[in-house]
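Ticket #4471: structure export looks truncated?
Reporter: QA, pipeline team
Priority: medium

Steps to reproduce: submit the single chain below to the structure queue and open the exported record.
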Amino acid sequence: MLAPKKTKMSPIHTFKWKGINRKGKKVSGELYGTSALEIKTELRKQAINVTHIKKLPKPLFVFGDKINPMDITLISRQIATMLDAGVPLVQTLTLIAKSTNKASLRELMNVVSTEISTGTGMAKTLRDHPKYFDALYCDLVAAGEQSGALDTIYDRIAIYKEKSEALKSKIKKAMFYPAAVLAVAAVVTLLLLLFVIPQFKDIFAGFGAELPAFTLFVLQISNLVREYWYIMGIVLFLSVWIFKKSYAAFERLRNQCDLLLLKIPVVGPILEKASVARFSRTLSTTFAAGIPLIDALLSASGSSGNYIYRNAILKIRIDVMGGMQMNVAMKMTDVFPEMLVQMVMIGEESGNLDTMLSKVAEIYEQQVDDAVDALTSLLEPFIMVVLGVIVGGLIVAMYLPIFQLGSVIG
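Actual output as written to the record:
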């Protein structure tokens, strides 16, 4: 059976037009569309007789035009707000397209709006653009369309996306500081080895005394870096490039990296809390939207962010399909914290599973926030210590021979 053909997003252009309105007055302006015919049709609906239309060239260089997750989060909130205010869906998408300054996002909204205006469902249209709307997003929209409560569902989608992006930002912040320490230390060390230490080498040449072992060691490293810096740079670049390609191509490597990240002191516990928060938030949102628990667990596994939790959730899904209660299945995985298991048990018994999961998500999101703040406070003095040890060690290595200068002269 052939797979359905995906709709290709037609490029949106800017058209400058001139015409005469129903009162015989000359009017002009600019409109966005895929073709001049589309623009003429739109203007004809407004009783404007087009006398001249011209497609404006696109700028040669466009920076920052890529659609990012925050853009999708923003338009989700805008859609939720306008649907709640009673604005029709097609008009909502058209208004969002007109209000954005990002051409790629405007193009996407225009294509989605055009598809929906022809009678295609919202969820089906969004599934044609998986780069921007993942399966979970589309499943929630489909649930909203089926229940006739798209405005309510979009409010939940907006909240989910906002919480998800906020959590992602916190994780990036937690990962950034250790990387920043290593990067700053490496740059400072490289500058000293390339430009500062060689100046001392010329001074040491006239001492006529045997240099300390530590000083000789640093000088040898400096010579090595100066002579082979370009080879080191090429090796570093190739290593990063090969790792990125391998990471994208091999699932086993990605799984090993996930496992390694969880074992990093301080950072690992933050990532574990983030995975629990992401699981709870996703499951709460999907279950509250009316998506069956089995399908909700599948969505939660895809958004867990770590293969250990992904495998655990898939195991829970299999056990639940077999008739086991979810809290029992969760406890058997030995992955999820006891508090989450207890809250799920209470939610299952009371029939308020989505509410309980939402509360757990809030608790763990707050814990992630507090842990990232604590990590930041911890690393600020740590950065100073690391840089002090590196720079101080290099300076001591260079000044040790000067301390022996008196004995040489005597």
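Status: closed, not a bug. The export was complete when the record was re-opened. Leaving a note from the reviewer for reference: The first helix runs from residue 36 to 45.
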